[in-house]
Each structure stands twice: as structure tokens, then as C-alpha cells.
Hints:
It is flat, with a radius of gyration of 60 Å. The chain starts with a helix and ends with a helix. Helix 4 (200-262) crosses helix 5 and helix 4 crosses helix 6. The protein is mainly α. It is built from 8 helices and 6 strands; from the N terminus they run H-H-H-H-E-E-H-E-H-E-H-E-E-H. Helix content is 74%, strand content 10%.
Amino acid sequence: RRESLVEERDDMRTEFEEVRREAKEDREKVHDVALKVESKRSLRESTQNGMERMVGQLAQLEERCGELRRNIAESESPLKEYKTEQDALLKKSSEVEKELKAARHLLEEIDTKLRNLEQERVEKEKLVQELRGLLEEIKLNSQEIRVRRETLKENLSELNFTLSHLLEQLEEGTTQETWEEKLASVTRRIERLGAINLAAIEEFSETSERKQYLDAQRGDLIEALTILENAIRKIDRETRTRFKETFDKVNTGLQESFPRLFGGGHAYLELTGEDLLDAGVTVMARPPGKRNSTIQLLSGGEKALTAVALVFALFQLNPAPFCLLDEVDAPLDDANVERFCALVKEMSERTQFVIITHNKTTMEMTSQLTGVTMSEPGVSRLVAVDVDEAVQMAAM
């Protein structure tokens, strides 16, 4: 009996577990059904909202369609008038096109006639030019004959002869060639005599005076040229001397300021030619730890610092009352900025520096700060601060 109770208990436990499992599955199914119902409810609500929006939009569209129909009805009457006017204009345009076509044809015919007439005119002008040239040649020949005749008349008048008298004395059979041969013979006899210059004495006197004047002018020019060449040589000597002195002083200043700005290294100036007046100047710089020799091989900050060293060397040669530096320290690192500020501080005892900078280290070195601010867009204002007074106020 105990065994039967145990088996019955086991059966009831198994059946209970089976019922529990089925109940769990039923609860999960109910939960799934509830989720689906909730999803369908949300979908239905969104669909109803969409339908309401569409109904509102449909009403607006129907109202807009009504307005468009009214506008179309109102605009149909002007369209008819425009259609009638358009037909009239098209008809008139067709007539004008025909007239234009006829005018173009007539214009082409006129252009053809004009080209033919132009060609004829060019040919006529060419013929006229030839005839004018021939006429001018005839006129020149006639003028030459007339001048020769007048000259002959004047010569005969000077010799107290008349043309009629000479014609009476001419032998029969005498030709122009005979007289030309006689004239050539007489001309050769005259040429053998040579030229007779009756004014040679006066011309020799004038030429002698002219030569004396030119010799005096040449002497003055040679003397002036000698003085000018001596002055040029003196100026060249002084220029070479001053250039050499200035070059040496600037070179010395560069050799002193460069190591102070770089914390070591050395730099110097080198002439690129033998003649001081034509030679160029090259900056040779070697920062500490580098072997490069020319400034072209340096970085941007090193070039800027080398340029500052050269400028300070020039200022030591000929100090100016003011020196404006525009963001010279922009490419420098903190260590180089500190050395730069120290050198500026030292030189500020002789020169007043105006520095444009964004570097805080440089700002700390200055005695007067002036900043540009823009509290409002497009409105700038200056703000000045006296560092010494600010320090005193902070100390109080």
C-alpha cells in the first residue's frame, strides 16, 4: 500500500508539473495576445488620427479647388480677348514677315549692285590714278622744259645775246649733238683749271677762330672730366671706407646679439664679391647644435630670430627713438621668447619699443598694455593698462 501511495504521489506531482507548465504557457500566450491587442489598438488610433488629418486636408483641398475653379472661371474672359488679340498680332506678324522677306531680297539685290558699282569705281579710280600719274609726269617734263627755256633766255640776256640773233648765226647742218660735244670739251677744259674760291681767305680766318674756340672748349671739358673723375674716386674711397666700417660694426653686433637670442651658436655677415661697392651681403647663421651655415636652411622661427638679431645689430649702430615690432615672437618657443624679451628690455633703455603680440611672456615684460576688444559686433574699443600702476594697486 505504501508503494501504491508513493506511485500515486509521483503521478500527482508529475501531473501538477504538467499543469503548471501548461498554465505558464497559457499566461505567456495571454501576454502575447495582450501585446498584440495593444499594438492593434495603437495602430487603430494612429490610423484614426491619420484619417482625421486626411479628412482635414481633403476639406482644405476641396476649398482650394473651389477657389481655383472660381479663378479659372474669372480668367476665361480675358483669355478670349487675349486669344483674339494674339490672332490679330500673328496675322500682322505674318504680313510683316512677308514684307521683311521682300525687303531682304531687295536689299540683297541692292548689295549686289553696290558691289558691282564698287568694283567698277575701284577700276575707274585705278585708271584715273594712272592717268593722273601720266599727267603729272607730263607736267613735270613741261615744267622742266619751261625752266630750261627761261634759264637759257636769262643766260643769253646776261651774255647780251638774243635767240633770234643766235639762230641767224648758226651754221647750216649744225645739230644738238655737235654743240653738246663742244660744251663737253669746254667743260673738261674748265675742270682742268680747278675750282677757284675767291672767299677762301675769309673762310680760313673764320675756320681758325672756330678751331681756337673748340680747342678752348675741349680743354675745359678735359679739366672738368678730370675734376669729376677725381671726385668720383674720392667718393668711392669714402663709400668703401664707410661701408666697411658699417659692415664691421653690424657684423660685430650680429655676432653679439645672435648667441644671446639663441642661447649659443654664432652668426656673421659675409660679402659675396670682391668690390665693396658691388658686393652683396649674405647672413651666415649656425644655431647651437646645428651644422647648417646659410639662413635658407633654418626653420621659420630660427629665421625670424636671426632677422631680429640683425635688426637689433642695426639699431645698436644707429639707434632710432622708436622701434615697431609686429608679432615677431609668433614663431618662437617659450625659451626663445624669454631671451628675446630680455634683449628688448635691455635695449628699451635707449629705444622705445612698440610691440604687437599675442604672447603672454612678452606682455609680462611690457610697462604699458593697450588691447583692442570688441564688446559688440562691429564696435572696437581700446583698453589701456599701466602695468606699474596695476602692480602698485595690487600691492595696496
